[in-house]
Amino acid sequence: VQLQASGGGLVQPGGSLRLSCGTSESIVSINIMGWYRQAPGKQRELVAHITSGGSTNYADSVKGRFSISVDNAKNTAYLQMSSLKHEDTAVYYCYATIMFTRSISSRDWGQGTLVTVSS
Questions:
Q1: What is the C-alpha to C-alpha distance for residues 22 and 13, in angstroms, rounded to an integer?
Q2: What distances in angstroms separate CA 26 from CA 21, 31, 37, one per listed residue?
Q3: Could you tell me which of 85, 88, 87, 66 has the C-alpha nearest to residue 77?
């Protein structure tokens, strides 16, 4: 699956941004879509994911501020980020996981999108 990420940029603390991740295949065929992020000098961390069944999971640090969703018609996943903080500054990577069997899966990545939260 090829992923096309967009939507990063510079935003002030307290502001909002929406990241998008378009897929080359029907998004309904993808089991999990989500985003990781990596801040300078830090390990990559899972931000949020959504399953094909609509279940979502968020990092504690973004709960209540970020929301992940998919638009099946547009084959696109979104990460709506609100009440952004300095510590949200990072490169965000979207990913797509397809489960072929319970033990065999593939994961593809979009290009990183830089989100900078600064006044």
A1: 27
A2: 13, 11, 24
A3: 66
Q: Classify residue 111 by its DSSP letter.
A: P
User: Sign (positive/negative) of CA torsion 55, 60, 64, 69?
Assistant: negative
94 in Cβ contact with 19 (< 8 Å): yes
| Residue 26: band (very low, low, confident or very high) from pLDDT cuts 50, 70, 90 | confident
| pLDDT tens-digit readout, 43-68 | 999 999 999 999 999 999 999 999 99
Cβ–Cβ under 8 Å, residues 19 and 113: yes
Q: Is 63 exposed, middle or buried (0-12, 13-18, 19+ CB in 10 A)?
A: exposed
Q: Is the dihedral of CA 104, 57, 13, 74 positive or negative?
A: positive
Spatial separation of the C-alpha atoms in residues 89 and 37, rounded to whole Å: 9
The secondary structure of residue 65, as a DSSP letter, is T
